[in-house]
Write a structure and sequence with these properties.
By secondary structure, this protein is α+β, with helices and mostly antiparallel strands. 40% of the residues lie in helices and 19% in strands. A hairpin with a 2-residue loop joins strand 17 and strand 18.
Length: 518
């Protein structure tokens, strides 16, 4: 083999880049006093609306299931516009698109009114928008912090090298999603901020769920936010990118956001919102609420992935959901876009059937799931679940208008199903960020809400029924030991509508020792 001087120089340069960029380290985390949620004072618009309802129902919280994407966007925007005291916002993903830009403008305008804004983002997504996010922090009323940040602040190569050299740390992410206004009103569930979560995408939109709520449950969610905000896992963005936090950058961001908002008024999505019943209800602050004293806000600890203990001890969300499912008398419904139950989860679900319970599960089909590795992990347990009497449905793909068929081995959620929910005995409902997979159990911080209310449970159950109807999903069964998929009119003896590439990647993922990362 012939090696030239130029080739040697290239190798040396690559090695130097690997060392320099791979050895990036985080700056010292600034020490300072802990900050916490601003107490309720009774003098804001939300105080005056919510206060009397709470006084009439001591100890109870009111919940409203948000299944419609347009309503989910409107509730965030309009409640943010009503904020007079505080906005505490926590997300895994915040896209730079129509809905992301408009909600960012709501944060700026709230801060301009004197509202204290705390924005907490996971850095896996935030890093790519570092300069815009840093500009927000230049506002005297906006604080921005990043969970488990990258030391390198721009460039794919630096991120890749840091991922390789610090994989065990970088692999731990914050998957929580919270929007808390004046410590009076909150929205939490499965939705990130982006067009596909709010039915605004021209391509594929997610089927997702949130709960909007008032009462003591909001105080518990605020306490969870404070725990993250003050944790050792979080860095102020000004300590990572001090030069990007400038009033000039903020002024430029504000001007561009305001100009964009004017243009956005003419988009079909924003124009269609004017005639939406849920938007009208949100404007009038007349959301129908189901009141109950029986609820739980479940939230993992920020340092969850660093704890050396069994999963049920490290994941508060898994523990709470496992207890609720274990107490089922008759029926368990589970909805999870990413579903890798593992040996113990499979045994628990089959055990419920053996004890006389009915267990029904909806997840993505291979054709609908853009993360082939996850489907590969799930497929290893499919026969055991079916042999044990568990009923399975797989959601059909929702094709984009351009017919694109993107897939990755380890990409983010890209299928049409994004809801993470459960219904137990038609009485208890769970809505959250928690997928039934090893990543949610051990690697990601998660949150969720259990609500003991038959109306909320019936609403989630109705969504399950609609999503498992023949037009939307295939039922998976066993015939002489072989898998079959059927929607009542067609039957398949292999993964329906899945290309060879998808089947190959799923099979490879099943062979590789990657299940703990899924």
């Amino acid at each position: 083999m012939k090696v030239t001087l130029a080739g040697v120089g290239t190798l040396v340069l690559a090695a130097l880049l690997f060392v320099v960029l791979g050895c990036s380290t985080l700056p010292p985390r600034p020490e300072g006093p802990a900050t916490s949620v601003l107490p309720v004072a009774g003098d804001t618009r939300l105080d005056r609306v919510v206060g009397p309802a709470l006084e009439a129902r001591p100890g109870q919280s009111g919940f409203h299931l948000v299944a419609d994407g347009v309503e989910a966007f409107a509730l965030r925007g309009l409640s943010g516009r009503a904020a007079e005291r505080s906005l505490d916002v926590q997300y895994y993903i915040w896209h730079d698109d129509l809905t992301g830009r408009l909600l960012a403008l709501e944060l700026i305008e709230a801060a301009d009114r004197g509202v204290r804004v705390r924005l907490l983002l996971d850095d896996m997504d935030a890093r790519s928008k570092n300069f815009a996010i840093a500009a927000l922090a230049a506002h005297p009323n906006i604080s921005v912090r990043l969970f488990n940040p990258f030391a390198s602040r721009q460039g794919f190569f630096g991120k890749a090298m840091e991922g390789l050299t610090s994989f065990s740390r970088i692999n731990h992410r914050m998957h929580n999603k919270s929007w808390i206004v004046d410590n009076r009103f909150a929205i939490a569930g499965g939705r990130n901020v982006g067009d596909e979560y709010f039915s605004a995408s021209e391509h594929v939109n997610f089927n997702d769920l949130d709960l909007a709520f008032v009462g003591p449950a909001v105080e518990q969610l605020s306490a969870s936010f404070d725990r993250y905000w003050n944790s050792d896992q979080v860095w102020p963005i000004e300590s990572l990118s001090p030069d990007a936090v400038s009033t000039e950058a903020l002024d430029d961001l504000r001007r561009r956001a305001q100009a964009y908002a004017v243009e956005a008024r003419q988009t079909p999505y924003i124009r269609a919102m004017e005639g939406h019943d849920a938007v009208a209800a949100a404007k009038a602050m007349a959301l129908p609420m189901q009141w109950t004293p029986r609820w739980q806000v479940l939230s993992d600890a920020p340092d969850k992935a660093t704890r050396k203990a069994p999963a049920l001890e490290t994941s508060a969300v898994l523990d709470g959901l496992t207890r609720a499912v274990g107490e089922a008398r008759d029926d368990v419904v589970l909805i999870s876009p990413y579903f890798v139950p593992g040996d113990s989860g499979t045994a628990q679900l089959v055990g419920l059937v053996e004890q006389g319970r009915k267990v029904r599960i909806l997840t993505n089909s291979l054709a609908a799931n853009d993360v082939a590795a996850v489907h590969g992990g799930y497929s290893a347990y499919r026969k055991d679940l079916l042999e044990g009497g568990v009923a399975l449905w797989e959601l059909k793909p929702e094709r984009s208008s351009e017919g694109k068929d993107g897939i990755s081995m380890f990409g983010s959620s890209g299928a049409s199903l994004h809801s993470k929910a459960a219904v137990i005995d038609d009485e208890v409902a769970f809505v959250g960020s928690f997928n039934l997979d090893p990543r949610s159990v051990s690697l990601n911080c998660e949150q969720g809400i259990l609500v003991d209310d038959p109306v909320i449970a019936a609403q989630v159950a109705a969504l399950f029924q609609a999503m498992t109807a023949p037009a939307s999903a295939w039922e998976v069964t066993l015939e002489d030991g072989d898998l079959r998929w059927s929607d009542g009119s067609e039957r398949f003896d292999r993964e329906p509508e899945a290309s060879f590439g998808r089947r190959f990647q799923a099979r490879m993922a099943r062979w590789l020792p990657v299940e703990t990362l899924l």
